[in-house]
Design goal:
The protein is an alpha/beta fold. It has helices spanning 2-36, 45-49, 100-105, 107-113, 127-135, 148-151, 162-179, 193-200, 204-210, 216-219, 227-252, 263-266, 284-299, and strands spanning 64-68, 114-116, 141-145, 184-187, 257-259. Strands 2-1-3-4-5 form a 5-stranded parallel sheet, sandwiched between helices. It starts with a helix and ends with a helix.
Length: 303
């Protein structure tokens, strides 16, 4: 009788240990699910120390280089037929403009960490060379505005073809990437040249300056409204829209590139935003508006 009791006691203890083991496993299993979610294993110590990947776009780059044409050089903003880079939307130091570089870096730092390689009269074919010069500075952001001069030719037949425009832009991007694979690129759209004509054609002085050779394909015979003149201007307008499409498409293939999503092209420049000498290039106020658009695009959250 006493032996059966001892055996029963030992059996009860074994059953208790089994039940305890099952309960312990169940509790630990539940805790594991709560900690990492689902059936995923808990992260290892090495995994928890692994650095997180850098964001695809840095909204506060530490240096800026600008490339492009007369708009980025501040042409006709301060004096007739003259560059005025101090009011450039991209890198100027004018307090009236608050350029992209000043907004990103602060006025003191922008003076030593921003560079302007734009050239008045430049076309897309000139961009690869500008990119090479800009890359030598190792900027964290390259700001691009170019293409108006590809449409502003003596005749519409002399405009840069869309295919050549694409080839040269792709070459420029490849040139930059060979030197600076991590640099960011902001690409501004080309302004609506036909709108600029419609705004400036009411000013007699502006039309006299136009005769010196400013964008003849659009501004030539400024008062002519016949079918041929209308067709010519519409042809230029359409080519600019094609160029802007190319800028968007090529930029979209590069994870470190973003455009203004057409904001400059859509901006309705009024007489206050146009040069009082040629009524075509941006004035100081117009340069400030371009700086606002660029800063908004560069500092926007991840796309």
């Amino acid at each position: 009788m006493g032996r059966r009791t001892d055996q029963g006691t030992r059996g009860g203890r074994r059953r208790a240990r089994v039940v305890l083991a099952v309960l312990t496993a169940a509790v630990l299993g539940a805790a594991g699910c709560d900690a990492v979610g689902g059936d995923s294993p808990a992260p290892s110590a090495a995994a928890s120390k692994r650095p997180k990947p850098a964001p695809a776009w840095d909204t506060s780059p530490a240096s800026v280089a600008a490339v492009g044409d007369s708009i980025t050089r501040g042409f006709d903003a301060c004096a007739v037929l003259s560059d005025c880079p101090e009011v450039s939307w991209a890198t100027g130091d004018s307090a009236e403009v608050d350029s992209l570089a000043v907004r990103l870096l602060g006025r003191a730092d922008a003076a030593g960490r921003s560079w302007n390689y734009a050239v008045t009269g430049a076309r897309m074919a000139d961009l690869p060379g500008q990119m090479t010069r800009a890359a030598a500075r190792k900027p964290e952001l390259v700001a691009v505005m170019i293409g108006a001069n590809d449409a502003c030719r003596a005749t519409t037949s002399a405009m840069t073809s869309v295919a050549d425009f694409r080839d040269r832009f792709e070459e420029a991007m490849a040139t930059l990437r060979r030197e600076l694979p991590k640099a960011q690129v902001y690409v501004a759209s080309i302004p609506d040249l036909k709108r600029l004509w419609s705004q400036g054609r009411t000013d007699p002085l502006g039309k006299q300056v136009w005769k010196l050779g400013i964008c003849p394909s659009m501004l030539g015979d400024a008062d002519a409204l016949d079918a041929a003149a209308t067709l010519r201007r519409n042809t230029v307008r359409d080519r600019v829209e094609d160029y802007n499409r190319v800028l968007r498409e090529v930029c979209a293939k590069d994870r470190k590139c973003r455009t203004d999503d057409g904001a400059v092209h859509e901006f309705r420049f009024g007489t206050g935003e146009l040069s009082r000498w040629d009524w075509f290039h941006p004035s100081v106020s117009g340069q400030a508006r371009l700086a606002e658009i660029a800063h908004r695009a560069v500092t926007a959250g991840q796309p």
